């Protein structure tokens, strides 16, 4: 009787193990994540569950592509231009959006809480106010929606696709690694919707241009252990699978 019970227990264990293997196989087959090994970030990677293709281009190709919208970094100029809807009162930036007032307040303490917000102007192509945030050892860009007042945190300067439907942002910080190094892709709506974010390990976008509605031209810094700066500059065409 004991032998029969032992046999039943063994068969039950085998059944459970096989079920777990089948379940894992099904999960792996459906997993569109970075855990699946691609050729290289210099060739392909996932962004928002979709494969992005990377190709090298000449510097001249990058230079000839249309330049992105220039950002006026002078807060004085920007505040004068938009004085009816954006004001600075001491350490406080005040935005009058359609839905509510939004404030961003500087923190001048010499601690990790340090924050300095600089108004970089209104972008009509996004209907967003652009703010540069400088912090203790890092930085980001902040979009304040002119209609809703919602805030969106970007790793780098926002660039809008030619058809106005997408916003891409990128930042390169391979060596110091104080800030996020990689790409963000958003749907350009009120309160922009994130479509994908990718932290890159082998290269970082220094400057981004839209070539067309599905293609980015990027000036990139690439990890190079043989370089005195531990990185070199190259240029990529990044094709989005949208």
Summarize this structure briefly:
This protein is α+β, with helices and mostly antiparallel strands. The chain has helices at 2-30, 59-64, 75-81, and strands at residues 44-47, 50-56, 86-89, 92-96, 101-105, 115-123, 128-135, 139-145, 151-154, 159-160, 166-171, 182-187, 193-199, 203-212, 215-223, 231-239. 17% of the residues lie in helices and 42% in strands.
Write the layout of secondary structure elements.
Elements: H1 2-30, E1 44-47, E2 50-56, H2 59-64, H3 75-81, E3 86-89, E4 92-96, E5 101-105, E6 115-123, E7 128-135, E8 139-145, E9 151-154, E10 159-160, E11 166-171, E12 182-187, E13 193-199, E14 203-212, E15 215-223, E16 231-239
Please characterize this protein's 3D structure.
The chain has three helices and 16 strands. It is α+β, with helices and mostly antiparallel strands and 242 residues long.
What is the structural class? alpha+beta
Taking all residues together, what is the mean pLDDT? 88
In DSSP terms, counting alpha (H) and pi (I) runs of 4 or more, how many helices?
Answer: 3
Count the E strands: 16
Distance between the termini: 63 Å
Order of helices and strands: HEEHHEEEEEEEEEEEEEE
Strand order of the largest sheet: 1-2-16-15-14
> What's the Cα radius of gyration?
24 Å
Percentage of residues assigned to helices: 10-25%
What is the molecular shape?
globular
Largest sheet properties: 5 strands, antiparallel
């Amino acid at each position: 009787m004991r032998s029969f019970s032992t046999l039943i227990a063994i068969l039950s264990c085998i059944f459970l193990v096989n079920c777990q293997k089948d379940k894992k196989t099904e999960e792996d087959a459906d997993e569109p994540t970075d855990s699946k090994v691609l050729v290289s970030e210099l060739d392909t990677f996932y962004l928002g569950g979709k494969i992005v293709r990377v190709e090298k281009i000449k510097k001249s190709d990058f230079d000839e592509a249309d330049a992105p919208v220039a950002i006026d970094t002078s807060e004085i100029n920007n505040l004068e231009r938009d004085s009816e809807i954006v004001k600075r009162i001491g350490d406080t930036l005040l935005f009058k959006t359609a839905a509510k007032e939004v404030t961003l307040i500087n923190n001048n303490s010499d601690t990790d809480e340090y924050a300095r917000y600089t108004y970089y102007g209104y972008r009509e192509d996004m209907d967003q106010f652009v703010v540069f945030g400088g912090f203790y050892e890092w930085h980001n860009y902040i979009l304040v929606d002119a209609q809703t007042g919602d805030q969106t945190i970007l790793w780098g300067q926002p660039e809008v696709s030619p058809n106005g439907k997408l916003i891409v942002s990128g930042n390169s910080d391979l060596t110091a690694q104080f800030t996020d190094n990689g790409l963000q892709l958003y749907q350009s709506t009120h309160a922009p919707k994130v479509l994908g974010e990718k932290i890159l390990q082998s290269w970082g976008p220094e400057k981004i241009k839209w070539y067309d509605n599905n293609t980015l031209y990027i000036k990139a810094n690439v990890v190079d252990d043989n370089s005195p700066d531990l990185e070199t500059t190259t240029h990529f065409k990044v094709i989005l699978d949208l």
